Amino acid sequence: MPGAATAFREVMRTPLKNRAIAIAACAALLAAAGMLLWRENASRAVPSRALPGANVLLITLDTTRADRIGAYGWQRAETPHLDALAREGIVFENCIAPSGYTLPSHSSIMTGLYPPRHGVRLNGEAALADSRTTLAERLSERGYATAAFVAAFVLDKRWGLAQGFDHYDDEFQLDPGQRLDLARVQRPADEVVDAALEWLEGRDRAKAFFGWVHLYDPHVPYDPPEPFRSRFAAGGPSSLYDGEIAFVDSQLARLLKWLDRENLANDTVVIVVGDHGEGLGSHGEGEHGYYVYDYTVRVPLILRVPGVPATRVRTQVRTIDLLPTLADLVMGQPAEPVQGTTLLPLLDGDSADHPPYAYSESMVTYLQYGWSALYSLRTNDYKYIEAPRRELYELGTDPGETVNRFDDMRRVALELRNELTRMREEDSRQESEVQEANLDEETLRMLASLGYVGGASVRPSDDGDLADPKDKLHLFESVGYAGNLMSKNEHREAAEVLEIILEEDPAIPQARFLLASVYRELGERQKAGDILDAYLREEPDNLRALMSRAEIFAEEGRRDEVLALARRVLASDEQNARAYELMADVYMGENDHASALPLLRKAVEIQPKLSRSRINLAAARLATGDAAEAERELVSIIEQHPKFPLANFHLGLIREQQGRFGEARRAYRAEIENNPKTFVARVNLGTLLLRLGEIEQAEAIMRESIELDPDNPRPYLLLGQALLSRPARLPEVERLARDGLRHADEPEMKALGYFLLADVYSRQGRGEEEREAARMGNHYRAQIRRGGPASGARS
Q1: Between 424 and 544, where is the model more confident?
Q2: Among candidates 87, 132, 141, which has minimal Cα distance to 107?
Q3: Is-contact 161 214, C-beta < 8 A?
């Protein structure tokens, strides 16, 4: 992208515009309803509306603003099925999400807790702790069949939301080495609904079901399929966003029609809820997660409950209220302990006991950028935002939150601020377990493109010296721009942009980690290491910085440093799967499979999700003589993911050792077909074909191997062996032997090369050259016998 960094530098030189603060002329009294003290859910009798054992279908609409749906007043919406559901059910006009990020918001839906209490504050930073009790776990305990179908990698089971689900459909096709934006790996709504309908059709019909269907399409990039793209393209990105919602609406219809077709509509509670909204340029924010204005936190919530007449509820509710509501409806008892409150009294117009406050937060500004966090407290009528420059909005007259009334409505602001302070203090007294997500090497490498392997080790505070995010949006957007450059492999341009950002604000953790990642990609490990070393001097216990530093040491072959840092990580986090993987890699590289084996077992125990650790575990078992267990592991991997890299290759090794050459050949060919750039499978297949006397096929495979890895000596030498029996090809064999020796560093390859030359010279009657080549071959063979370094296993 020539010139991108230069253009960016010019933008960065433009002075930040002063933000005008419009102050209204008069103060207002508190709303007549009053500011009741917020309190947690109390025990109450099971309501008369209860439907014990009813099915539950929960549909979460990612990145969906309430005000872009027809039922919520958007005139340009094409949401006929959502609108019809709204006419049949209960529409909550003011439902507030606690976060502008997918994982924290869904964690709140599933636990009935705010993020400070359940511990998940950002995407990709931590997992929902096993100690938290989810909606799925509660329903599973009551005999429900449970299944989830998620559309985005940000909700992959690595992050803890699979708790309680019998079936968790999160199969995303991630190519090894792919640069991954955590939020952009997704499945379209039709694929997710296909999977959900397949499970619904085949479920155990003797049980009630809880199905969660997550639809992600309104998230960037806005690219709806036809015919929606053509219908909405003329209006630009904002219109295409509407097109994505229209597409999601069409897929929601398939689920609702299935309920009708199966005569289950009268036995199923249907919930449609958003997790957060989208900026679309409001307050300068293109996407979401930075600010806590209503375009991010006000989401649609529609319930269809059998036997309950249609109504609209203006009283403000929260997404944390869904779990206690379902506990009342279908579980037969209140859910405790939670922070949400059942919504059932609101259906009868009784709002007296419903908490008037809804809490939301933005932690990305603090945890990843080192600026102030943003906390908001909202009522039906007002929104207070705690920031270095505090904000108050009167929502009835200013739904776009454009006029800050903090200075002229101090009484309202003080009431809300005091309540927010009380809530935060109460949350701080409650234990909030933070559980690190156990990510395998491939996932960590892929997440690095947007810095998810970074992040500061800081925790929320009231430090008034921190920068106001309102002054830093340009830097936040700029870091995102650098991440986009990285995702397109434009690393040099990304480095220039990040360097400019750090000139203005040198302390941004996200930018520092990203720049270290960029330098690694550019092969400039010293620069990457210097950044991480500087960070670790400030935050010596930051686990992700330690792991990133260890990975650079691994790339440099500094085994002692890798082992030392990995052990340092495990001293703080004994469940860190990646630390075990790194230590195992050191031992595998030394062919010390016995030492690697227990480390790999531990890594797989912690993170059973299919990853390279399971392949390495099978390889270590094979190398230590446990071929039967290795074979079972590989067969299991191939059943789950037939194209998983190296699975068929290692199965081919086992088949070859067993003398089952036909099966070995098929396994090697399957590996090549599934992963066309594989080198080791080609070399092993070529060797096997040579062993079977299939010279022409062996020659073709070896030439492909040379083309794939021209610096590797093995295919040159094996091809030379294949051609040795053909006298007319001896000059070519000599060239191949010399090419192999030129690239060989290890005694095994050097011995093989010199013995190949000796054989050529013998056949040509070149006695003196034969003896010298044989002498060199014996020299390197003796070095191998004395324990010198060898090339290792054929894998």
Answers
A1: 424
A2: 132
A3: no
CA distance 185 to 21: 39
Alpha helices per DSSP H over 298-453 = 322-326, 344-347, 364-367, 410-429, 441-447
Average pLDDT score, the chain: 86
Written as six digits, the tokens of 511 are: 């930018």
Assess contact for 363 and 262: CB atoms under 8 A.
no
60 close to 211: Cβ distance less than 8 angstroms: no
pLDDT given at position 444: 56
pLDDT for residue 722: 86
With 60 as the cut, is the pLDDT of residue 24 above it?
A: no
Query: Is residue 758 pLDDT above 90, yes or no?
Result: yes
Task: Report the alpha-carbon distance of residue 300 to residue 310 in Å, rounded.
Answer: 16
Q: Residue 382 in contact with residue 401, Cβ under 8 Å?
A: no
SS3 273: strand
From 16-25, 225-234, 357-366, 733-742, the region with the lowest mean pLDDT: 16-25
Say what the pTM is.
Answer: 0.78
CA angle, residues 16, 18, 24, in degrees to nearest 5: 155
In which band, very low, low, confident or very high, does the pLDDT at 446 lie, cut at 50, 70 and 90? low
658 CB-near residues (< 8 Å, 6+ apart): 627
Crossing angle of the two packed helices 612-623 and 593-606, in degrees rounded to 10: 150
Distance CA 359, CA 381 (A): 14
| 29 Ramachandran zone, left/alpha/beta (phi>0; psi -120 to 50) | beta
Which is nearest to 276 in space by CA: 318, 237, 235, 311?
318
Report the amino acid identity of residue 473.
L
H helix or E strand, kind and range, residue 486: helix 473-487
Angle at 717 between CA 713 and CA 718, to 5 degrees: 115
CA distance 517 to 528: 7
